[in-house]
């Protein structure tokens, strides 16, 4: 059972990305992908930052074998750097089309994965390699699939 939110030591995951073309990156992630702007700040010497709401944040830790397997399933070859940003969306196909029209490069089209999601890979502004994914089953249905569960539930011999 998870702790109440007030007892969690971390309140928010914030990924900070340096974008050489700030305006283009902001337009892409805020206006095209649809991440609402929570706040924006500016400082001397033209310093600017926008904080975009990406919904619930998680940190996915994968070992090299899992990272390789995900690349193989979604793309058919190794393409992702050590850091890949994934966005859950309601319509992976439509979102992919919008992002490509706005300047992203499609690395792999929407593909149904063994974990029952529809995932597309793109190279996006600010040098990010991203996945947009649409869950095709609810959490309960996915947890019934082979290979799903939690690390805590696997035990030391898993």
Structure description:
With 158 residues, this protein is α+β, with helices and mostly antiparallel strands. Helices cover 26% and strands 25% of the residues. The longest helix is centred in the N-terminal third of the chain and has 11 residues, at 22-32. The chain is globular, with a radius of gyration of 17 Å.
Task: Label this structure with key terms.
single chain; 158 residues; alpha+beta; 4-stranded mixed β-sheet; two-stranded antiparallel sheet
At a glance:
The chain is 26% helix and 25% strand.
Into which percent range does the helicity of residues fall? 25-40%
In total, how many beta strands? 6
Would you identify the regions where 5 or more consecutive residues have pLDDT less than 50? none
For the report, how would you describe the main beta sheet? 4 strands, mixed
Form type: globular
Name the strands of the widest sheet in spatial order. 3-6-5-4
Cα gyration radius (Å):
17 Å
- Tell me the distance between the termini: 21 Å
What portion of the residues fall into strands of 2 or more residues? Answer: 15-25%
**DSSP summary: helix tally:** 5
Specify the structural class. alpha+beta
